[in-house]
Amino acid sequence: MGQQRPPLLCDVAVLERTATDLSEKFSGFFPEQTVYRYVFESHTALRRTAKVKTHVVSLTRQFAIERLTALALSEGAIVKTVPEVLFVCVHNAGRSQMAAALLHHHAQGAVHVRSAGSAPADTINPAVREVMSEIGLDLAQEFPKPLTDDVVRAADVVITMGCGDACPIYPGKRYLDWELTDPAGKSAEEIRPIRDDIDARVRALLAELVPAAT
Fold it and tell me: 122 in a domain, yes or no?
């Protein structure tokens, strides 16, 4: 594996502005050095692990906010008001993205949802986007994200989908493994049953976590 190239100079300037802005946002939770480290680490992770090639700086902001929020939750700096669910598959381009979108939709704010991949793809599977748009769920703003320790620590329920032992195990969390067909390389027609299977599982999970939401 080749050596990771440093950020371009133009990216560094934007990343520093992003880190300054997020330092204010997370003031009282983390020192400035921590926020800066998370911003630049998130940028490196997206360039290397997720192989994001476009809009990487703007996506870095979103990814860093997710990670810093998860870190604050796991450390008790932010009080949890709803259950935290993390879906993990290999590429974060199909199964975990569908599950996260479906649970977010059905929960209507009663559950907070994240997704990640042990080896993220470049982009979300176009056929997955298609079958989700058929039921009114738009994945256009989503992108494959690398699995990080902070989001696992923040989760109450971690659901894996064919990613083996990539997800770290922490006591006090509920771990589930859903055996689902990988939609990679499949047509929209072949993916619809996978989507519907995930939908049924998500509804059942929501009924357990927040009975009043179903």
Answer: yes
Residues 93, 166, single domain; the answer is yes
Global pTM?
0.89
Same domain, residue pair 49 and 108:
no
Please tell me the predicted confidence (pLDDT) of residue 1.
Answer: 39
Chain length of the chain:
214
In a domain, 1, yes or no: no
Instruction: Write the CA distances from 97 to 19, 73, 78, 129, 177, integer angstroms.
Output: 27, 22, 25, 9, 15
- For the segment 165-185, what is each residue's pLDDT rounded down to a tens digit? 667 788 889 999 999 999 999
- Please tell me whether residue 103 adopts helix, strand or coil conformation: helix
Q: What is the pLDDT of residue 145?
A: 93
Which residue range is the domain that position 200 belongs to? 84-213
Same domain, yes or no: 53 and 143: no
Domains held by the chain: number:
2
Mean pLDDT of 26-43: 95
Let me know: does 11 contact 43? Beta carbons within 8 Å. yes
* Cβ neighbours around 134 below 10 Å, total: 11
What DSSP string describes 113-174? EEEEESS--SS--HHHHHHHHTTT---TT----B--HHHHHH-SEEEEES-TT-S---TT-E
The yes-or-no verdict on residue 25 having pLDDT over 50 is yes
- Whether the Cβ atoms of residue 71 and residue 150 lie closer than 8 Å to each other: yes
